[in-house]
């Protein structure tokens, strides 16, 4: 006899960020939908988002936004997907306003648009300055017609004849079984696996491990974006500094006043991977600072940044910065309806891989992706007949923490030898089997770390092969 608490729903959504909430908002209110949150419902990267949401709402069409997305991505994209999202994105601002979200405006009443890295024109909509994510998510969560269970982790997807039919996990420390006609993975990012990250600490890429366990196809896990500007004080990272500051006139410099991005044609608003690479190279020799003296109305436009500086008792006009793990471009492969390669299993948001971001995500396209693709998944969702859950098997976890060397090797500039050595360490790692919530979460973390290492190695070997082929062609 099972001692699990049992719940039966039509749709189980794992996560409470914008992608998860968008799915839930666009499903019928009478449908039996449940969202589960690993911690509190507010502990998401969407809630932390400072920069805003990119949209071609005020442009003639979406072609410029589409072109900027393709240019920043540097390959490995699906142009049909990019065209769809940037075109659908033109309606997103009005749709969010219909849910009660308000966007910043000038004194004239016009939208106060920002410009960020690799965008050729201002098209970033903000709410509350650099509090866009907090303002947006707070309002949308109020509108949600479906329940959320907090402090609930999913540690295994349940399958019958290769179809996902539910999940098991823990509500608090109580074992939980959930029967569902569809399961949606919206588990967010991977930053919690690293010592320096812009992410919510509890987000450790659980969706990747869950999907891999049931045989879903994953792709491009070697492409991890590092945000160029993480506040550094006394050698400790203190979270993201929004790119919108550079769009408002802030710039990167060394202690002697030299502009770090002076030789780049796009200057301080170059693509994130290029800025992060330059900062990393410079910091090998000397510190890098963000100078904000040219930013007008700093306190009102960037209250999150100013308050963080006040908390640390430092002046916001000049702060030291470093890079930090920010966003995973790859993930669980899906089509435009969010379907994975496993029946009954869907994925959306950062945990999904749809060909939008390529090798480098364009700034403020993440909130756009979450809302558009969450809505599309909901509109196209077709529920199969319910299948009974199989008897839960006794799956043990592991009593081991993620190796801190993961941060050292999955850095801005990847190096094959270090990656392979760390992967061997993970594969050889001996750990005592464990039982319960924490042990099973450790198993998921260990699996995700291994998947990321394998993805990075695959990326480097592919790039080396491409270079050899290019050399042979030109020889």
From TrEMBL:
Protein family: Belongs to the FAD-dependent oxidoreductase 2 family. NadB subfamily.
UniProt pathway annotation: Cofactor biosynthesis; NAD(+) biosynthesis; iminoaspartate from L-aspartate (oxidase route): step 1/1
InterPro entries: FAD-dep_OxRdtase_2_FAD-bd, FAD/NAD-bd_sf, NadB, Succ_DH/fumarate_Rdtase_cat_sf
Pfam families for this protein: FAD_binding_2
Keyword field: FAD, Flavoprotein, Oxidoreductase, Pyridine nucleotide biosynthesis
UniProt-recorded name of the protein: L-aspartate oxidase
Residue ranges of domain FAD-dependent oxidoreductase 2 FAD-binding in the record: 10-367
EC number: 1.4.3.16
Cofactor: FAD
Alphabetized Gene3D superfamilies for the sequence: FAD/NAD(P)-binding domain, Succinate dehydrogenase/fumarate reductase flavoprotein, catalytic domain
Enzyme superclass (EC): oxidoreductase
PANTHER family: L-ASPARTATE OXIDASE, L-ASPARTATE OXIDASE, CHLOROPLASTIC
Reaction(s) this enzyme catalyzes, per UniProt: L-aspartate + O2 = iminosuccinate + H2O2
């Amino acid at each position: 006899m099972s001692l699990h608490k049992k719940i039966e729903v039509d749709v189980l959504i794992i996560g409470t960020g914008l992608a998860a909430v968008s799915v839930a908002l666009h499903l019928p209110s009478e449908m039996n939908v449940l969202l589960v949150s690993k911690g509190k419902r507010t502990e998401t990267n969407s809630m932390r988002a400072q920069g805003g949401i990119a949209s071609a709402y005020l442009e003639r069409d979406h072609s410029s936004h589409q072109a900027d997305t393709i240019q920043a991505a540097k390959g490995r994209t699906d142009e049909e997907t990019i065209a769809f999202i940037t075109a659908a994105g033109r309606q997103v601002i009005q749709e969010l306003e219909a849910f009660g979200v308000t966007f910043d405006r000038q004194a004239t009443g016009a939208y106060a648009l920002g410009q960020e890295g690799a965008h050729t024109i201002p098209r970033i909509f903000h709410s509350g300055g650099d509090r866009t994510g907090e303002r947006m998510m707070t309002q949308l969560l109020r509108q949600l017609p479906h329940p959320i269970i907090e402090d609930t982790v999913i540690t295994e997807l349940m399958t019958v004849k290769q179809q996902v039919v539910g999940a098991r996990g823990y509500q608090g420390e109580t074992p939980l079984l959930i029967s569902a006609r569809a399961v949606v993975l919206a588990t967010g990012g991977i930053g919690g696996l690293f010592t320096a990250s812009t992410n919510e600490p509890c987000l450790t890429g659980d969706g990747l491990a869950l999907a891999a366990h049931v045989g879903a196809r994953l792709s491009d896990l070697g492409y991890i974006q590092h945000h160029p500007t993480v506040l550094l004080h006394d050698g400790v990272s203190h979270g993201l500094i929004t790119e919108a500051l550079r769009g408002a006139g802030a710039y990167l410099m060394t202690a002697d006043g030299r502009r770090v991005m002076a030789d780049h044609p796009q200057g301080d608003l170059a693509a994130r991977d290029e800025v992060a690479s330059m900062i990393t190279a410079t910091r090998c020799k000397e510190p890098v600072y963000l100078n904000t003296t040219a930013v007008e109305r700093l306190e009102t436009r960037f209250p999150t940044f100013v308050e963080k500086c006040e908390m640390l008792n430092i002046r916001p006009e000049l702060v030291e910065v470093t890079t930090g793990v920010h966003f995973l471009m790859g993930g669980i492969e899906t089509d435009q309806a969010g379907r994975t390669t496993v029946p009954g299993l869907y994925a959306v948001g950062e945990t999904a891989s749809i060909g939008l971001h390529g090798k480098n995500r364009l700034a403020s396209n993440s909130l756009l992706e979450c809302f558009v693709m969450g809505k599309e998944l909901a509109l196209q969702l077709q529920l199969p007949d319910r299948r009974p859950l199989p008897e839960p098997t006794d799956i043990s976890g592991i009593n081991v923490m993620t190796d801190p060397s993961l941060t050292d090797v999955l850095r801005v500039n990847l190096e094959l030898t270090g990656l392979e050595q760390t992967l061997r360490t993970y594969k050889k790692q001996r750990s005592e089997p464990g039982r319960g919530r924490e042990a099973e979460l450790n198993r998921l973390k260990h699996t995700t770390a291994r998947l990321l290492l394998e993805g990075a190695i695959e990326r480097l070997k592919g790039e080396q092969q491409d270079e050899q082929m290019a050399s042979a062609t030109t020889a």
